[in-house]
Amino acid sequence: MQFNTIPLTSLTGSLCKAMGVEPPEFSQGEISQLVDYVFSNTDGKPVDRVLMYNPDAIGQYSYEKYADKFEPMRKYAPLELNMISVVPPKTPVCFGSMYTGANPETHGIQHYVKSLITIDSIFDALIRAGKKPCIVTVKNSSLSKIFNGKNMDYYCEDYDNEVVARAVELIKKDAHDFIVVYNQEFDDVMHRSHPNSKRSQKALDHHAQSFDILARHVEQYWKTHDTLIGCATDHGTHREWYLLGQHGKNIPEDMNIKHYYGIIKGELK
After folding, report:
1. pLDDT tens per residue across span 154-196
2. Is the dihedral of CA 8, 169, 74, 238 positive or negative?
3. Distance between CA atoms of 127 and 110, rounded to whole angstroms?
């Protein structure tokens, strides 16, 4: 198995370009396929809204092995990007790079620790541009801690279902320009079993269902906006010697990830 070549660090610059926002200080490049896709579907104009669904640990292998489970991703977000995570492929390290555009050495988290990131991030860039970002996540997760202290809204819920329900409320209110939604069931179950267990497969079903719920509500309630919707995992996973699921190694199973992106056009613009 070969390593992918599109770096996770190039996502922040791409999202900023899609929204017409100056990227944060340490952001590294753009993903031409994503930027071209966005502007070809918006008559060359920036999107008004971005909704990012972040399910933890669903690597490229899982998306391809269980492709039939992910019809909602292909329906609402048909642009598939085979990307490569950062080393080590641990959740706070990866999300630090995903939303700063910087390498772990630059944003400061280089192992599994939920430390506060103090360098410039996409959230800071959006706030400077007059946008309203928010994070909706599970209590005590990495995303509930590493980007704290900014002039934005944070919603920390008990678990995935409550996170999705809160995100639906926010979509209905239509008061935020950029919403990050984090879920963790697959990662939790995979660590207690392995990535191909029946419980892990059920978690994949739940994540696909959650994405479908979010996309349908964007379609219904954000009719006055052009929206970029993404399903963006942080890293992959592997089974350690036929025991439990793990991640953290610089191997394709842990590093290769697949993202999905789509444009939901505003009908009333």
Report:
1. 999 999 999 999 999 999 999 999 999 999 999 999 999 999 9
2. positive
3. 26
How far, in Å, are 31, 69, 71, 216 from residue 132 at the CA level?
24, 33, 30, 22
Identify the bridge partners of residue 171 per DSSP, sorted by sequence position: none
Containing 177, the helix (H) or strand (E) segment is none
Cα distance between residue 267 and residue 197, in whole Å: 42
Tokens 């640990």 sit on residue:
57
- pTM metric for this prediction: 0.97
Calpha distance 115→113 (Å, rounded): 6
Q: How confident is the model at residue 241 (pLDDT cuts 50, 70, 90)?
A: confident
Most distant pair of Cα atoms in the chain: their distance: 54
How far apart CA 174 and CA 111 sit, in angstroms, is: 36
The CA distance from 160 to 146, in Å, is 19
Determine the Cα–Cα distance for residues 150 and 133; give it in Å rounded to an integer.
10
227 pairs with which residues across the strands? 49, 264
